[in-house]
Design a protein that fits this description.
Chain A is of the alpha/beta class and 425 residues long. Helices cover 53% and strands 12% of the residues of chain A. In chain A, helix 2 links the parallel strand 1 and strand 2.
Chain lengths: 425, 308, 302
């Protein structure tokens, strides 16, 4: 093993401190190494907080932050499992939790969950994801809302536009914005961001269609007239974007809206965290509202981050997993992490009115409650919360191609979408 | 080619063990190559017809992963791109490399400086190469913005966002990266050409471009083949360059097979289908290498009969 | 292959009349300059952006000169010592050692094996040697993505997971394909009569290697060292997948800058980090470039 001197030194110090305080049983020294993809910026800072809390609770914290793309994280996870060194804790989400659970490589958290009463405090809509076969295998960190729309305050005021509530209103607003020589939709094209936009479009036009098509991968729904209409709306929206969308990052698009260069930006609530960090102010630079819906209610497309634990042999790491699960689920961490990340806690018993949550975040929580009560809540396909990756990937290919290539008609796109999914069945 | 020295039958009083030294020296490499070239390829081949999804699973399933792969538009685009990108990149690099080598061969001053300038891109990783050229090519950050800032409002330079042209951006960037290498090898070749040949042609009154085209370059064709093989290897493995430059976009227009393999195997948990894609890359490779091997074999035999 | 000393002893530009000579000189230098400009532009752009504050970059894009009053060198310091990468705010300095510890042994080992293999395959012909050579060189073409999982399995069995030693192992094995290809093709041009004569004098395998082959090897050693060093240094996939945290090589650490990460981007610091990461291979090319071409001239590749 190749442990740098510094780390060894730190370990010794931590161990000494821990023993001195006597916070931990002498039998096992809780240790963990969490693998995740939050390598930069506010997210990295949020994870650093987790590390501090973990060490304060008497654990020895290590992390493997894998930069760049999700596939790098998953490549590392797979090769670690293949090499027989499954990581102690990994950031994984959605249907992947169930898939990894089915391989038998994941650890069971029921004991910790029961002791902590997770079943009572975790938002009910997360339970099926975190407990794929009835046992806890993942600890949820947050709830993100995907169907947000950020509007440029400056453009709204200048042109006298109200925030559009339906897609028709949205199109009308865009026509006005374009007539005034501005870009209407700020966008950076990539498969996941194109699909994020399309999530909101399909859901906003027909929530039932969204469920059938994106949660159940129903082929008829994917091919339906409703889907054709949704593609037609997406085509229209591509026309409202400027010609620099390819190769632009989502933060650059965000900045376009915040600085009044573009009117609207459709993106999940992690935008709030980045906007705050960049010094943009709610109600001065931007307004956050739900993305347009044609059915007049309150909607919520949910996305959640979570940590999955893999079976370990070393008792130190097993002990460490319990401590990490406990730390992640603690109200203190849920507040710190989510304030930094723009999301809301996965626990329903956390008070958002204190601790630095923004208005957008509080609105998110309120809307979540309404959405659960009225039965409009869905999970996000774009953010890997519904169907298996192979279906999601196939759909994203078609959607991103549709955005990039305006020779594809909405009818063709709907057929391609269904065909691509069917092919992988 | 010179005939090998006769070492298969050394003098009598054989020290058998000592005779084995060459083979023993080669053994570790041979074992390693057997494992990682043949072994890994066979493993991939088997996985491509197995039931593997999230993790490798050796149970047999069948050939439907190939059918699914070829049914996906992204893959057909990627496979096609491999051939388009591969040929343009190899040919383009050879042309630019030759041009640079010929220019440097004109007894220019400060040869070392010129050579270093053209060679340095090879030292830069593909990730960095791709990122910087994305900055340059992107209309919002690069040349187009600079031209607009200078007052040319109608300036347009947006190949990277045009699905029909984006692949050429990848080709240009690839050529920038590798042409110095081609130059170095071709320059080495030019330096080895017999000066008398050139002098004779000069006395005949041929112009320099003509001498290069007719006399010098044809004599160093083996070097072109060697460079092409090394470039081909880059082309087939191309992954990080595209990821950093275009991420395979716009849409799927610049996707290359290595990206699909990586995505299927790791992002999507379709290891079997990813392995099928990897096998198809090997097939593409065979399509190029087998004719080459046959051709060199034929060349050798021809030379053999000529000398023998 | 002809020896380097038969280098043509004439000046191609010295032909024709005075005017024609001038015109061709102008064309040659003009073309060289134009190419040089294109080749240097990316380096220039990265370098200039290391000096510019983020606001400037966001406002005027990447292609602009630094402004005199806002120009600063402090981003270099940040990149080296305090920038946050992968959750640790110690800059790129801590990854440097990893990269060196990976690249140097792997380069040395693969070069040594390459020399020996090349020597055997060119001078000690045996049955099926062509096949063996073909098999080894085939390794040059193996797509990395395909070999990831098998390598992970092998490294796990060898107990080398998550170590720099594991990376050295993988890069050595893969590198041997290249070094063997280069060395074998180079040694083929050493006259067999030399070997024959030595054998008649009673020299054995190792003695011939030490006395004849090694002294003739420096050019090809330089070629393989340059090739291997830059290739291994710049590789990121294996580094990312087979090591973690503090063991990662520098190229894996800076991959973050290419991705669509979800935090704000510090282009200036990232640009400085990118240059720092590129310095060792650049240095190798600048210093060794002359020998690289010379090595190739003497028949490294045919």
């Amino acid at each position: 093993m190749n442990i740098p001197f510094k780390t060894t030194l730190r370990t010794t110090c931590v161990a000494a401190a821990v023993l001195g305080i006597g916070a931990v049983a002498a039998s096992a020294e809780p240790k963990t190494n969490m693998m995740h993809q939050w390598a930069q910026g506010s997210e990295a800072a949020a994870i650093a907080k987790l590390g501090e809390m973990y060490e304060a609770a008497g654990g020895k914290w290590e992390q493997t932050a894998i930069a760049g793309h999700t596939s790098n994280t998953l490549a590392k996870l797979r090769s670690d499992v293949v090499s027989g060194n499954a990581p102690a804790a990994v950031q994984l989400k959605g249907p992947e939790i169930a898939e990894w659970n089915a391989t038998g490589a994941t650890a069971n958290l029921d004991e910790t969950a029961a002791a902590q009463g997770w079943d009572d405090v975790v938002a009910p809509e997360l339970l099926t994801v975190m407990k794929p076969t009835g046992s806890w295998v993942a600890a949820p960190m947050n709830i993100h809302r995907v169907n947000w729309m950020y509007s440029s305050k400056a453009i709204l005021d200048d042109l006298g536009i109200d925030v559009p509530k339906t897609w028709d209103e949205f199109n009308a607003a865009c026509d006005k914005v374009q007539a005034a020589g501005k870009t209407c939709i700020a966008h950076g094209a990539a498969d996941w961001s194109d699909t994020t936009t399309f999530d909101s479009v399909v859901y906003g036009m027909d929530a039932e269609l969204y469920r059938k098509a994106f949660q159940e991968a129903d082929l008829d729904a994917l091919r339906s007239d409703g889907m054709v209409k949704a593609f037609a709306q997406l085509r229209k929206m591509v026309g409202y974007m400027d010609d620099g969308i390819n190769g632009r990052s989502w933060e650059q698009s965000m900045t376009m809206t915040m600085t009044g260069e573009a009117a609207f930006f459709l993106m999940g609530d992690w935008t709030v965290a980045s906007a705050n960090l960049a010094g943009f102010k709610e109600d001065m630079d931007y307004v956050c509202t739900q993305a347009p819906v044609d059915w007049g209610g309150t909607g919520f497309i949910l996305n959640a981050d979570s940590v999955v634990f893999f079976k370990q042999k070393d008792p130190d790491y097993i002990e460490g997993q319990k401590l990490l699960a406990k730390t992640i689920m603690s109200p203190e961490f849920q507040v710190t992490f989510n304030v930094a990340k723009g999301s809301i806690p996965a626990r329903t018993d956390v008070d958002l009115s204190t601790g630095g949550f923004t208005n957008c975040q509080q609105k998110s929580l309120a809307d979540l409650k309404v959405s659960v009560d009225t039965g409009t809540l869905v999970r996000s396909m774009a953010h890997n919360m519904t169907v298996l990756q192979k279906y999601r990937g196939a759909m994203m290919e078609v959607i991103t191609e549709f955005v990039a290539d305006d020779s594809i008609s909405p009818q063709e796109a709907a057929n391609q979408l269904a065909d691509a999914v069917e092919l992988q069945m | 080619m010179q005939s090998p020295p006769d070492v298969r039958h050394p003098p009598k009083a054989t020290r058998r063990w000592a005779d084995m030294v060459p083979q023993l020296v080669l053994a570790p490499t041979l074992i390693a190559a057997l494992v990682w070239v043949i072994g890994f390829s066979l493993w991939t081949l088997w996985i491509s017809v197995s039931q593997s999804t999230l993790l490798p699973d050796m149970a047999y399933q069948g050939f439907e992963h190939y059918a699914k792969l070829w049914g996906s538009k992204r893959w057909t685009v990627a496979y096609q791109n491999l051939f388009i990108f591969g040929s343009l990149y190899v040919v383009g690099t050879l042309i630019v490399g030759t041009l640079l080598a010929v220019l440097i061969d004109q007894r220019v001053r400060f040869e070392g400086i010129w050579r270093t300038i053209y060679l340095y891109p090879l030292a830069i990783s593909f990730i960095v190469t791709g990122t910087v050229w994305r900055w340059i090519f992107h209309p919002n950050t690069g040349v187009e913005l600079a031209l607009k800032d200078m007052g040319w409002v109608a300036a347009r330079f947006d190949w990277i966002t045009d699905r029909d042209l984006a692949l050429y951006v990848v080709v240009i960037t690839g050529i920038w990266h590798a042409s110095g290498f081609a130059m170095a090898l071709i320059l080495a070749g030019l330096r080895s050409v017999d000066g008398d040949l050139v002098k004779a042609a000069q006395i005949d009154g041929a112009s320099m471009p003509r001498i290069y085209r007719r006399v010098v370059l044809p004599t160093i064709w083996p070097i072109f083949v060697a460079v092409a093989v090394v470039l081909l290897q880059f082309a087939i493995k191309t992954y990080d360059l595209v990821v950093a430059l275009t991420q395979g976009g716009p849409g799927v227009s610049t996707t290359v097979p290595a990206i699909v393999v990586y995505d299927l195997m790791f992002q999507r948990g379709q290891i079997a289908q990813g392995a099928a894609a990897a096998v198809m890359i090997l097939v593409a490779l065979a399509l190029v290498l087998i004719p080459y091997a046959v051709w060199t074999g034929w060349q050798k035999r021809k030379e053999g009969t000529r000398h023998g | 292959m002809a020896d380097a000393t038969t280098h043509q002893e004439f000046d191609p530009l010295a032909t024709g009349g005075m005017r024609r000579r001038l015109v061709s000189k102008a064309i040659v230098y003009g073309a060289l300059g134009l190419f040089a400009l294109v080749y240097l532009t990316p380096l220039l752009i990265i370098s200039l952006n290391t000096l510019r504050p983020l606001e400037d970059i966001v406002r005027t894009g990447f292609i602009a000169l630094p402004e005199a009053e806002t120009m600063t060198l402090r981003y270099w310091g940040e990149a080296w010592g305090s920038f946050c990468i992968g959750g640790t705010c110690e800059g790129v300095s801590r990854f440097y050692k990893n990269s060196l510890m990976m690249t140097i042994p792997a380069t040395v080992l693969s070069t040594l094996f390459g020399l020996l293999n090349g020597y055997v395959l060119s001078k000690w012909r045996f049955r099926y040697d062509g096949l063996v050579f073909g098999l080894i060189t085939l390794g040059v073409f193996m797509p990395q993505q395909m070999t990831l999982l098998p390598w992970a399995f092998v490294l796990g069995k060898l107990g080398l997971s998550n170590t720099i030693g594991g990376l050295v192992f993988v890069h050595t094995v893969q590198g041997i394909s290249f070094t063997t290809l280069f060395c074998r093709n180079y040694f083929v041009s050493i006259p067999d009569d030399l070997i024959k004569a030595a054998r008649i004098d009673g020299a054995g395998f190792w003695r011939i290697f030490r006395r004849i082959i090694l002294p003739l090897s420096p050019p090809i050693v330089i070629v393989t060292v340059i090739w291997q060093f830059t290739g291994i240094w710049n590789e990121f996939l294996f580094g990312t997948v087979f090591t973690s945290g503090a063991n990662q090589p520098i190229t894996s650490a800076i991959v973050a800058f290419s991705g669509s990460g979800t935090g704000e981007r510090h282009y200036n610091v990232e640009a400085a980090a990118v240059i720092m990461a590129a310095i060792p291979p650049l240095l190798i090319y600048v210093v060794g470039g002359k020998y690289f071409v010379r090595g190739l001239t003497q028949g490294a590749v045919k």
